[in-house]
Amino acid sequence: MTTTIVDAVKAARESGDYQSVLDSIPYMKFLGLVVEPDADGPICRMPGSDHIIGNPVLPAIHGGVVGALLESTAIMHIMWSHESLHVPKIINLTVEYLRSARVVDTYAQAIITKQGRRIANMRVEAWQADRAKPVAAAHAHFLLPRAED
Amino acid sequence: MADGDQIVRPEWARFPVVSIAGMNELEETIPQIRALGIQVVSMAGSEAVSRLPYHPQLVGDPETGVVHGGVITTQIDNLCAVALHSRIGHYVPCVTIDLRVEYLKPSAPGLDVFARAVCRKVTSQVAFISATAWNEDENDPIALASCTYMLLPERESTVSGGRN
Questions:
Q1: CA dist., res. A59 & res. A75, Å (int)
Q2: Does A43 touch chain B (CB under 8 A)?
Q3: Peptide bond into A59 cis (omega under 30)
Q4: What pLDDT, in 10s, does the model give residues B56-106?
C-alpha cells in the first residue's frame, strides 16, 4: 500500500499548497481541479472543459460532475483542517441544484458544520461568476479515520 | 397500464419516442458520460440499468483504488433521467433539482459499477426516481439514491432528454 497521499498531506501542511494532494487523487485530477488557498479552507476551482459537459445543447456541466466537485472540495477541506491524513470515506451526500452550471470556471468551498471524533458533517457550496448566486449546494457526512494526527 | 406509465402531459407526445438504441446514441453525445464510458444496458417501463467500466483515472482514493463517489453520483444522476424518459416514453426536457446518495460501502477496486434506476412517480412538473448501485450482486448494493427531476415547460426546452 502506497503512502504517497499521506506524504503529500504532510508536505502540504508544511507548505500550505494542497495541489499535490489533489493531483495524487486520479479522479480529481481527471476533472482538472485546482486548489486555491483561502483562510477559511481550500477553494477548489474546476475549469470549464469539454469532457465535463452533461448537456451539450445548453451547454451545461453535468450535474454529477457538480456533485463530484462538491464532494472533492469537502474531502480537501477535511484533509486541510488536519482531520485526516487519508482520503475520508463518504457516508452520504445530498446535492441541491440551484442553477444551470455553465461551462466556465466553477468554484466550491466547504465548511465543517459539526465535527465529532468519528464523523464530520459538511456543508459545501459551488458558484461561478457571482458567489452570491450559487449553482449548487450540498450537505454530506464523512467517516474520519481513527487517531490520525 | 399502471398509473404513471401514461403520459401526464399530452404535449410530451410530440417529443421523440424513447428506444434503447436512441438512448445510447444520446448518451454518446454527452461528453462526461462518454468520458466515463457509461452505457445503458437495459431499459423497460419505469426502469433502466447502466454499466460504468472501472478505470484507474476514476479512482478517488489512491491508497485503496476505490472509485470516487462523484463518479457514482454522475452515473446515478444520468441513469435517473434515462428511467424517467423510459417511463414517459418520450425525451422530455428535464433538470435535476435534488440528488441524495448513500454510500453503503466502497466500490470494489477493479470492478465495474452497475446501477438500476426506477422512476416511482411522474407529475406534470416533477419526477421522483430511486436508484441502487452494485458491483457483482444487486442484493449487496454499494449505494442507494433518491433523485428529483423537474420537467421543463416546452417553451423552455432546448434539449431533447437527459440534461445531466
A1: 28
A2: no
A3: yes
A4: 999 999 999 999 999 999 999 999 999 999 999 999 999 999 999 999 999
8 Å CB contact of B164 and A92: no
Residue range of the domain that includes B66: 10-156
The verdict on a CB contact (< 8 Å) between B98 and A93 is no
Nearest to B69 by CA among A70, A135, A116, A41: A70
Pick A55's closest partner by Cβ from B62, B69, B163. Answer: B163
Asked if the interface predicted TM-score (ipTM) of this complex is over 0.90, the answer is yes
- Residue B64 resides in a domain: yes
| Percent helix, percent strand, percent coil in chain A, to nearest 5 | 30, 30, 40
Q: B78 touching A, CB under 8 A?
A: yes
**Where is pLDDT greater, at A114 or B2?**
A114
Mean pLDDT of B105-128: 97
In the sheet that A136-143 helps form, which strands lie side by side, from edge to edge? Answer: A34-36, A43-46, A106-115, A119-127, A136-143, A89-97, B94-103, B143-151, B126-134, B113-122, B47-52, B39-44
Percent with pLDDT over 90 in chain B: 83
Number of domains in chain B: 1
Across the interface, of B31, B63, B100, the residue whose CB is closest to A53 is B31
Q: Is the pLDDT of residue A108 over 80?
A: yes
Out of B57, B76, B96, the one facing A97 most closely (by C-beta) is B96
Average of per-residue pLDDT across A77-85: 90
CATH of the domain at B67: 3.10.129.10
Domains of chain A: 4-143 (3.10.129.10)
Let me know: does A73 contact A124? Beta carbons within 8 Å: yes
Q: Could you tell me the pTM of the whole model?
A: 0.92
Of A80-94, A125-139, B38-52, the range with the lowest mean pLDDT is A80-94
Rounded distance, CA A107 to CA A33, Å? 9
